[in-house]
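Technical annex, item 7. During the second reporting period the consortium partners agreed on a shared format for inverse folding records so that results from different sites could be compared directly. Each record opens with the tokenized structure and is followed by the designed sequence. A conforming record, contributed by the partner at site C, is shown below for reference.
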């Protein structure tokens, strides 16, 4: 997920701020897409992969010098953000429509639906969703890294 969040187009075309939070939010969007596909295909997502993502984020917070209490609070907040994204992203294979309010909330450099930045992110997530939907669930996380916008 981290490799996908490092796509330079997010920072050059959309002008997202290159911060820890932005990368985490982008990872959450990608991860939410994958989880939604697993649910639509009626396949259980491996708990170990879910745990690994949050374990890596926790370790990165610690590497940033945040103490135990701060890490726990940030992880609790990030968990809420993830579930907010997961529950509100609204992906449909046939009639794709991205939840604009969700995008405006987490990516402040995108503030208008008629904006090229919003359209780029909308198209990117749509392509990522369709790309991943065509991948076997057993290989989805590994093969998702081959996605090129």
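Designed sequence (site C submission):
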């Amino acid at each position: 997920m981290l490799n996908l969040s490092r796509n330079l187009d997010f920072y050059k075309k959309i002008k997202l701020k290159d911060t820890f939070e932005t990368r985490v939010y982008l990872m959450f969007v990608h991860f939410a897409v994958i989880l939604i596909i697993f649910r639509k295909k009626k396949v259980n997502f491996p708990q170990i992969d879910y745990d690994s993502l949050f374990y890596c984020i926790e370790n990165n917070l610690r590497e940033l010098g945040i103490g135990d209490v701060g890490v726990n609070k940030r992880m609790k907040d990030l968990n809420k953000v993830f579930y907010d994204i997961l529950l509100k992203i609204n992906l449909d294979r046939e009639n794709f429509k991205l939840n604009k309010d969700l995008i405006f909330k987490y990516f402040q450099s995108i503030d208008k639906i008629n904006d090229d930045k919003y359209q780029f992110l909308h198209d990117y997530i749509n392509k990522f969703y369709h790309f991943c939907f065509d991948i076997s669930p057993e290989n989805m996380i590994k093969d998702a890294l081959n996605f090129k916008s």
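The radius of gyration is 15 Å. The helical segments are 2-5, 8-12, 20-40, 47-63, 68-88, 100-106, 116-133, 140-144. All partners now use this format for quarterly exchanges.
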